[in-house]
Amino acid sequence: MVDRLVNSEVNNRRVANVEACFGSSGQPLAVYGRVLVGEGVLTKMCRKKTKPRQFFLFNDILVYGNILISKKRFNKQHIIPLEEVQLEDLKNDGDLQNGWLIKTRSKSFAVYAATATEKKEWMLHIERCVNDILTKGGKKPATEHAAVWTPDNDASVCMHCQKTEFTIIQRRHHCRACGNVVCAACSTHTYRVPGVSKRPVRVCDSCFSKLSGGGPFHNESGSPKQRTTNESSESEEEEKNDQYDHQVSCIFL
User: Fold this and answer.
1) Band of residue 238 on the pLDDT scale cut at 50, 70, 90
2) How do residues 17-26 score in pLDDT, each as one tens digit?
3) 3-state secondary structure of 160
4) What angle do CA 151, 155, 160 make, to 5 degrees?
5) Alpha-carbon dihedral angle through residues 192, 195, 201, 206, given to the nearest 10 degrees
6) For the region Disordered, what residue ranges are annotated (predicted)?
7) Are 192 and 201 spatial neighbours (Cβ–Cβ below 8 Å)?
8) Contact present, 76 and 236 (Cβ < 8 Å)
9) Band of pLDDT at residue 72, cut at 50, 70 and 90
10) How many domains does the chain have?
């Protein structure tokens, strides 16, 4: 089915429609050989809580964004090459049902489908596309993946020192290396974590010690340095202006 739709008029229209829904905030998606395999709404575990996100599965990339108007308007576009993707099943936990992890070298996160059937369909199609692209490219599956962030609400105290209680004044911060929620005092340094960021990002003291090998601090770009207070995370940026209408459906070829 996918091969039959390559460069077909039907597929070209579908891809063009996705581009139009993202408008100027998104990147061009029309590439020779690219096919839109499926689309739908998944609930993504964000930093503070779960939020619905529109996902588009192509035969070589996974695209998702914030929902502004259901089926019509999206922003905050993210593009994930499928050759980097590895999936991991999640067991049902209270209100968090039908979930799995999407893990890549630069970012890993949990998503949840509306039903067990939708979860099965999503995981089946994603894994099939990943296997196809790896086979055609003669590549091996990725073995290194970014840590999954612990949700803010899952940590009432710093996961590093186990002492600092989080309040309006004592803010939560995430270590980009291990994903733990830590206090400011336990994450005063940054380090360029391989695969996660091209610039130094916040890490906890334990991860900083491991990554830097206990060496001296440096201020050169890409090296460990003292953390400044004006750095914001991708997850924080993603949640800005987060308004949407919700839909629960998925469509695959």
Assistant:
1) low
2) 999 999 988 8
3) coil
4) 110
5) -80
6) 215-246
7) yes
8) no
9) confident
10) 1
Task: Identify the helix (H) or strand (E) that includes residue 55.
Answer: strand 50-58
Give the contacts of 191 (CB within 8 A, at least 6 positions apart).
Answer: 177, 200, 201, 203, 207, 208, 211, 212, 223, 224
Sign of CA dihedral 102, 1, 60, 133: positive
Cβ atoms of 231 and 189 closer than 8 Å: no
Say which CATH number the domain at 66 has: 2.30.29.30
The owner of tokens 């964000």 is 46
Query: 194 lies in a domain?
Result: no
d(CA 119, CA 122): 5
Q: Which residue range(s) make up the domain with 87? A: 2-146+238-252
**How many Cα neighbours within 13 Å face the side chain of 108?**
24
pLDDT in tens, 87-141: 999 999 999 999 999 999 989 999 999 999 999 999 999 999 999 999 988 888 8
The label of the residue with tokens 């990943």 reads: 130
| Rounded Cα gap, residues 32 and 107, in angstroms | 26
1, 5, 84 from 35: Cα distances, Å: 10, 7, 18
Q: Which residues contact 4 (CB under 8 A, 6 or more apart)?
A: none
